[in-house]
């Protein structure tokens, strides 16, 4: 059981949960038996090294292990390699009053002068115990000069000095330092381990909490117990002694899991407009968009692993109910499309912090999925994966049902003019992606702007804007040319946010400059609200099979063409 460490003051109950529930013995450290067993045996046998390196994700127990090691080495009444936590030395260490336990934050004390001060202090004998232990937290932050100054001390320290280096980025530690330390790699904890520990803490604190909330907190912590306990503390502060899923979402600003699943199911079906509407509803409900996207990415990764037959790796992260959902929906995705979606969502999260940009790129992803499904196309990275996709037998959501009463607002497919097929070897299929750089412009038709010419070069025009401003180019992907009135090009937008963004004066002038240069004529842009034209369906399966490119695709990738009702 955890040792709830209460200080002597009357403010004990005000301390954060992760401080009060810090492990006090090796046996209380969760999920790191390969480390605790080795250290405990070293203390018991007296074969203690002079330098240890503890590396692993945050919140997995690195600093706690170093403190336990100090108490175990200096305890006046050790118990089979464990500290008693009751003697004078143990209690002083627990209260943070021991002069022989020195903790150095290497992130703020990272220079050569700081290390010189450490080298001078190492020579002094311990004031109470047998050993003086130095903890260098965030050790990877030390400068190269500081490491050079520290090397000799680390290599030949006095017999009473022990160093414990803690880091999350072990690759930044110089090899000369690594070679002089005993290294221990701490792992991320499994969700089941975190759930069990949170259940114990909640019961001891007199808090009634549902299993659903415990599983959600464990997954949010991403394998870090300290993060999970901090989240639990935050929820308790908001909800009190009774916590259910609704209060947990309200306390942390979390989206409902059903909303995340519903969004992914709409992407799976290619219902782009309905997915955008659901996203708007989620934001109106007050959910944090980054948290929503992070949850979606976690589920997308799990879908990809389930689709690839690697479901065994998910058992420690997801509940039985979530695994059942993954098994049901993973086969309904084209694996290449799913991998591309995972990549896109990951890039959106990494590249954008602003909520407006996050929303815009997520909307574009949904609309592109809808456009690809409507036209029968696949993303560029998945063009080679031609395989029939099973039709899902799920009831459309209320959002999707509402969207059926009006034209679906999806980005129109970019017109592509293929090269003429060769009479010798049949049609040729190019795998080259369109260049994002400037494209040589051709002279416009006599008389200025021509709608047909603009429509034929629409994809090229977007790419040229994208090269100047990626957000602006992304907004134009949801637009389509409607008409030309003299030197004015009228663009129709299905979504207000995208229309207003392009219509902003600096943005509109940039678009007009790019279009005018590419078309070699004056171009004034006017933005209006308009649903995009619907994609025309293929007349019949028989006529589709007469297309030389369809025949070439079938011959290259196999499979068969089917007619969808």
Summarize the structure.
The protein is an alpha/beta fold and 565 residues long. 48% of the residues lie in helices and 9% in strands.
Question: Mind sketching the topology for me?
Answer:
Elements: H1 17-20, H2 33-45, E1 51-55, H3 62-74, H4 88-94, E2 101-105, H5 112-122, E3 132-137, H6 144-155, E4 161-167, H7 175-178, E5 182-185, H8 191-204, E6 208-209, H9 211-220, H10 225-239, E7 242-243, H11 245-252, H12 257-269, H13 272-284, H14 289-307, H15 320-329, H16 335-351, H17 355-375, H18 398-403, H19 451-456, H20 458-468, H21 470-476, E8 479-485, E9 488-493, H22 496-503, H23 505-519, E10 524-529, H24 541-545, H25 548-557
Parallel strand pairs: 1-4, 1-5, 2-3, 3-4, 6-7, 9-10
Antiparallel strand pairs: 8-9
Structural overview:
There is one protein chain. The chain has 565 residues and is of the alpha/beta class. The chain has 4 domains: 174 residues, P-loop containing nucleotide triphosphate hydrolases (Rossmann fold, 3-Layer(aba) Sandwich), CATH 3.40.50; 62 residues, Helicase, Ruva Protein, domain 3, CATH 1.10.8.60; 147 residues, Zinc Finger, Delta Prime, domain 3, CATH 1.20.272; 79 residues, DnaA, N-terminal domain (GMP Synthetase, Chain A, domain 3). Helices cover 48% and strands 9% of the residues. The protein has 25 helices and 10 strands. The strands form 3 sheets. Strands 2-3-4-1-5 form a 5-stranded parallel sheet, with helices on one face. α6 links the parallel β3 and β4. α2 packs parallel to α3, α12 runs antiparallel to α13 and α16 runs antiparallel to α17. The two termini are 61 Å apart. The N terminus is likely disordered.
């Amino acid at each position: 059981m955890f040792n709830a460490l209460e200080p002597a003051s009357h403010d004990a109950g005000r301390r954060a949960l992760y401080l009060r529930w810090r492990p006090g013995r090796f046996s209380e450290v969760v999920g790191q038996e390969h480390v605790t067993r080795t250290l405990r045996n070293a203390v018991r046998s007296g074969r203690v090294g002079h330098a240890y390196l503890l590396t692993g994700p945050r919140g997995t127990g690195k600093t706690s292990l170093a403190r336990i090691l100090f108490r175990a080495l200096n305890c006046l009444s050790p118990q089979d390699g464990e500290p008693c936590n009751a003697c004078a030395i143990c209690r002083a260490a627990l209260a943070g009053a021991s002069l022989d336990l020195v903790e150095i934050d290497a992130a703020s004390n990272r220079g050569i002068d700081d290390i010189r001060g450490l080298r001078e202090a190492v020579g002094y004998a311990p004031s109470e115990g047998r050993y003086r232990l130095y903890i260098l937290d965030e050790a990877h932050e030390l400068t190269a000069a500081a490491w050079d100054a520290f090397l000799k001390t680390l290599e030949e320290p006095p017999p009473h000095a022990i160093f414990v280096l803690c880091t999350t980025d072990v690759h930044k530690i110089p090899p000369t330092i690594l070679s002089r330390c005993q290294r221990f790699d701490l792992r991320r904890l499994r969700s089941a381990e975190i759930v069990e520990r949170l259940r114990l803490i909640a019961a001891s604190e007199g808090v009634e909490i549902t299993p659903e909330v415990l599983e959600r907190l464990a997954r949010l912590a991403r394998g870090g117990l300290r993060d999970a306990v901090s989240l639990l503390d935050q929820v308790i502060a908001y909800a009190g002694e009774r916590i259910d899923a609704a209060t947990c979402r309200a306390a942390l600003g979390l989206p409902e899991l059903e909303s995340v699943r519903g969004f992914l199911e709409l992407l799976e079906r290619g219902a782009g407009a309905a997915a955008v509407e659901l996203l708007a509803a989620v934001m109106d409900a007050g959910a944090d968009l980054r948290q929503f996207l992070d949850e979606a990415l976690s589920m997308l990764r799990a879908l990809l692993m389930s689709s690839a037959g690697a479901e065994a790796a998910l058992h420690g992260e997801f509940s039985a109910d979530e695994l059942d959902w993954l098994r049901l929906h993973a086969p309904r995705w084209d694996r290449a499309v799913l991998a591309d979606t995972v990549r896109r969502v990951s890039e959106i999260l990494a590249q954008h912090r602003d909520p407006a940009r996050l929303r815009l790129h997520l909307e574009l992803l949904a609309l592109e999925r809808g456009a690809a499904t409507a036209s029968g196309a696949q993303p560029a990275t998945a063009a080679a994966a031609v395989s029939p996709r099973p039709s899902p037998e799920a009831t459309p959501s209320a959002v999707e049902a509402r969207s059926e009463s009006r034209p679906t607002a999806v980005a129109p497919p970019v017109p592509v003019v293929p090269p003429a097929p060769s009479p010798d070897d049949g049609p040729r299929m190019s795998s080259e992606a369109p260049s994002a750089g400037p494209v040589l412009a051709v002279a416009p038709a006599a008389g200025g702007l021509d709608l047909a010419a603009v429509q034929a070069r629409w994809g090229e025009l977007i790419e040229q804007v994208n090269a100047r401003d990626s957000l602006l180019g992304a907004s134009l992907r949801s637009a389509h040319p409607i008409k030309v009135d003299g030197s004015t090009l009228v663009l129709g937008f299905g979504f207000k946010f995208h229309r207003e963004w392009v219509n902003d004066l600096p943005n509109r002038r940039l678009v007009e400059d790019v279009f005018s240069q590419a078309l070699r004529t004056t171009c004034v842009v006017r933005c209006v609200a308009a649903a995009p034209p619907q994609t025309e369906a293929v007349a019949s399966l028989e006529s589709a099979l007469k297309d030389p490119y369809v025949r070439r695709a079938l011959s290259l990738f196999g499979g068969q063409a089917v007619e969808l009702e």
